[in-house]
Fold this sequence. Notes:
Layout: H1 3-28, H2 31-38, H3 41-47, H4 50-81, H5 86-101, H6 104-119, H7 126-153, H8 156-164, H9 169-199, H10 215-226, H11 230-260
Helix pairs in contact: 4-5, 4-7, 4-9, 4-10, 4-11, 5-7, 6-7, 7-9, 8-9, 9-11, 10-11
Amino acid sequence: MTRRQRARAIRVAQYLILLAAAGAFAALADWGRIGDAFFDVDVIHDLFPEVITVALKNTVLYTLCAFAFGLLLGLVIALMRLSPVTAYRALATVYIEFFRGVPALLVLIGFGYGIPIALNTELPGGILGTITVALGLVAAAYMAETFRAGIQAVPRGQMEAARSLGMSHARAMVSIVIPQAFRIILPPLTNELILLTKDSSLVYLLGVTLPTRELAKFGRDSLNQYVSMTPILIAGLAYLLITVPLGYVVRRLEAQQAKAR
Length: 261
């Protein structure tokens, strides 16, 4: 057999193994029990529309607020990281290493319970303010490194050309460098938004109420109520309504950048 024939035979064998495994599962699985556990129509009917109007809405709100806060703070930290001032670089480095090394779960607990207990005060904005600051601080550490890489990827000649036209360093950075850096880092920023959407599932640890529940808390409460995996499946599908389109956007942006090169 030639190399191409061997490769074709191996692919055919792999497909046959996959079909055999799928056929064995279909023949041996208890579909009635699986249907009752994962696709209970009555449970699905009871979950709607609250899963959309409350849980999904809150998940999107928490994610967008934390992302906006992290985006602004991450840009500031990145500029500090690139600053010629040693103190700024040191502060930015410490911040990035700390919040990239500490789990987001611990940061949420610290802002949700630690600060109110230690300082006898709460962050403004209630639970939304706590989530925005806690998750935003963690996201900013990752975004700062993304911004730094994007700014450094802009050709140095862009800054030199802007300075030769009489622009100050700050004006050239805001008007010339940062907009080009944004186009470069859009795919990783979108990936960060996807990760932040999933990190919002940690919010249930803050003891959210019924009106402030997000998808993970909603799925867990409904699991206890109905004793069925259907709520978890519905919550997972609701997450996919957010992450799958964002993943598609990432692939399109990466393809456009590849063509531009």
